[in-house]
Specification:
mainly alpha
Length: 148
């Protein structure tokens, strides 16, 4: 039996659950905004206590990563993501969750070949491309600011 693209599209639409965009989008926006607001509150608390803005931002990142890892370890981040969807993909917490959940899953394979390998499987491409992009953009910025 040959399945045409139209037949496949019809079968796919029947099998796919209906999207609840009217509910999902505001919830994702609210959760993502809440994570960002929490980060801003933490940063403000640190700057009010006398830290420089860059130091406050660094400690805020560390705290948000730690919270994300703890929530992932206790299985709560997954429950939040199930309801909040893309709202939990705020870069620092979403990346932290992705790395820590893959490490937790690979724990039974050992620390080196399990946890270590899985962490770099997930984080490696992001670190590689992020570092490469920052070098390229840094060089372009340097050249443009000194030549032009």
């Amino acid at each position: 039996m040959n399945i045409t693209p139209e037949m496949y599209d019809k079968m796919s639409r029947r099998a796919s659950p209906k999207s609840r965009s009217a509910v999902n989008i505001p919830v994702a926006f609210g959760v993502g905004g809440s994570i960002c607001a929490l980060g801003q509150v933490i940063t403000s608390l640190f700057t009010e206590s006398g830290l420089e803005r860059t130091e406050a931002a660094m400690w805020t990142s560390v705290i948000l990563i730690g919270i994300s890892v703890l929530l992932t370890g206790f299985g709560l981040y997954h429950k939040l993501a199930k309801h909040a969807g893309a709202g939990t993909l705020v870069p620092i917490t979403g990346f932290s969750n992705a790395i820590s959940s893959s490490a937790i899953e690979a724990k039974s394979e050992g620390f080196v070949l399990g946890v270590g390998a899985k962490i770099f499987t997930i984080a490696g491409p992001v670190i590689l491309y992020g570092s490469t992009a920052s070098v390229i953009f840094g060089l372009l910025y340097y050249l443009m600011s000194n030549v032009l």
